[in-house]
Amino acid sequence: LKKRVGAIVGLVFFIVAITVYSLCVFTVDISGNEIVDTDVIDERITSETKLPLFNANIDTKKLEREIMSIEGISSASVSRIGTTLKVVVLEELPRTSIEDIRTVFLPIKSKYDSVITRMFVTCGTPLVKVGQPVQKGQLLIAPYIMKDEKTTVESKAGGEVYGKVWLKKTKTFYPETIEFCRTGESFTVYDIKAFRWINSPPNPFVYSEKQTEIIYLGGIVPLRAEKSVYFETQKTVVPFDFDSCGDTLIKEGVTELEGELPEDAVKIRHWYEIKRLDKIVQLDIYYEVEIRIN
Fold this sequence. Notes:
Blueprint: H1 5-22, E1 24-25, E2 27-31, H2 38-48, E3 53-54, H3 60-68, E4 73-81, E5 84-91, E6 108-109, E7 114-123, E8 125-126, E9 133-134, E10 139-142, E11 144-146, E12 152-154, E13 158-173, E14 176-192, E15 208-217, E16 223-239, H4 246-259, E17 266-277, E18 280-292
């Protein structure tokens, strides 16, 4: 029995610890919110209930009322699941803009030069059709309805119009370019965290490249330091050959143009043109996409 006392005491402590742990609330789980920031809800909960809690009788109804008082929250459900306080919220629908359809009758215009590919008219009269080229600013849907051949009735213009749009990016390359080349001179600075109050000497170079690494100085108690090496550079005019790196430049240009495309754009195809004037090279990159043009 004496040999088993330690095991028995340990088992008792384990049971007590598990019991105490099950009576505590440590974390808050918030879900259901997209518009209202989670931190705002968490601050409102913290103002009423301080975690962690031991064997606390949480007034969930009061917490629900406090959460619903937050602007943008329409309802809330608070429950305790194990050691977690679970909060599920339902947000209010966003407010829609109020338009006076009795006095405001604006036409829908094109934002791009394009060719119409598809259109969905909800109200008003369409002035274009699929396959028709349109210019930027051209009317697409008129704010009226044809009652008969000679009579029109004012109405709100609504709908979505999509078309093919061609976007362009131009880059010009000259026979010479400027590069910064190292001269062979360098300057090293050690920044020791323990001696930050000591000002480091300034970089003496006008143009330079910097390389930084973490090192340890000393023996028995090494000091962590940041070693910065400045390599002096100078402007140098060097010849530039477009043909030797043309493929790379074209890929870079296509990638840049893709990054500028609208989020809703559907990519169709891209191509490029190379124009030469004396030794100057002009690279034109085109991208054909389908986007909403109104």
